[in-house]
Amino acid sequence: MSHANAITQQWGEDDTPKSQYEKGVKQLIDNGLKKVPKKYIFPESDRSAARNTEDPNVAKQNLQLPIIDFADLLGPCRTQVLQSMANACEEYGFFQLVNHGISNDVIKNMLDVSGRFFNLQFEERAKYITSDVKAVVRYGTSFNQTKDTVYCWRDFLKLLCNPLPDYLSHWPSSPVDFRQAAGTYAEETKYLFLTLMQAIIESLGIIEANKEKETEENGYNILKDLKDGSQMMISNFYPQCPEPNLTLGMPPHSDYGFLTLLLQDEVEGLQIQFQEKWVTVQPIPNAFVINVGDHLEIYSNGKYKSVLHRVLVNSVKSRRSVASLHGLPFNHTVRPSPKLIDEVNPKRYADTDFNSFLSYISTTELKRKDFLDSRRLTST
């Protein structure tokens, strides 16, 4: 049985949205919504600092994240770039990647076809609505509309991507060029992720330059496992909002995998928590925003940090982004690298796996870094 057939959702009456809100924000806006429903209004404590520049918890200027030039990473300046990457992962948990080798056409096509998917008639999008977090294709809103007490001002399309031949035929067939554009994008971001992880593991001192093999205890070869690892692509759509101060596109959270490669359009919205302040990330055309996930924080034994981030919405422009989340195969265990554990740096996280994460989010409303905190053995 293929990976796809093993996970494919069996559609039924239970998958029919039980309220108008579960049909998504796009549908509400298309139907002429003029006020934010109570279901989308976040508590004052969660949103009060979103745009209030007098609030001490909000920086007054946009944040220029560290910029890593991918071309330099592959050239004679590799050692210096590795150090810059290490600093970014320790201090920010984020960096922007330029000159990454993925063509502007591939990027443009991905953003364009994602936008056209969200502009399809609701009946076409609704084919992929399911509450099954393991589904190959999942269209929905918020994080988990069956558990969230407050919904996010966001609609999403989630696609499992690796191995691509198993999943591609299950992806949306409309727009007609969706599979081709998204498939090409998935392949190229997978290659880019693996190249970045080689550099990140090298920056941690776990492997030496140009060596594929690790010499870790118990044969834990992370690079080999990541080649066969999970990849989930999430296209996000944040419609214009009539009362943006009342809601959030996404609340504060961290990502669960190793690395997320985020492609965003030129509309501001992404904020990260830096030095205990919320700061807006300045978009760079055709660049990727790269962020450390919870599993990389575990693997690095807390040296590299997954950082809280959130998304603001606005009343003027809709916003699109495509997040490519990468990690180990779903049935593999994530544990701190033995090379980063000693008497001075004891093991700080319990071993975990993807099923533990899925069980957690299936029964609990996901908030901030709650799942990662549940795996901590000691403070970092």
TrEMBL record:
Keywords: Cytoplasm, Iron, Metal-binding, Nucleus, Oxidoreductase, Vitamin C
Residues forming coiled coils: none
Pfam families: 2OG-FeII_Oxy, DIOX_N
Subcellular locations according to the entry: Cytoplasm; Nucleus
Annotated spans, Disordered: 1-23
GO MF assignments: L-ascorbic acid binding; metal ion binding; oxidoreductase activity
Location of the Fe2OG dioxygenase domain: 229-328
Recorded GO CC terms: cytoplasm; nucleus
First-listed, main subcellular location of the protein, grouped into a coarse class: cytoplasm
InterPro entries recorded: DIOX_N, IPNS-like_FE2OG_OXY, IPNS-like_sf, Oxoglu/Fe-dep_dioxygenase_dom, Plant_2OG-oxidoreductases
Polar residues: bias regions: 1-11
Taxonomic superkingdom: Eukaryota
Family: Belongs to the iron/ascorbate-dependent oxidoreductase family.
Described purpose of this protein according to its UniProt entry: Involved in the regulation of shoot development and salicylic acid (SA) homeostasis.
PANTHER family found in the cross-reference section: OXOGLUTARATE/IRON-DEPENDENT DIOXYGENASE
Name listed for the protein in its UniProt record: Fe2OG dioxygenase domain-containing protein
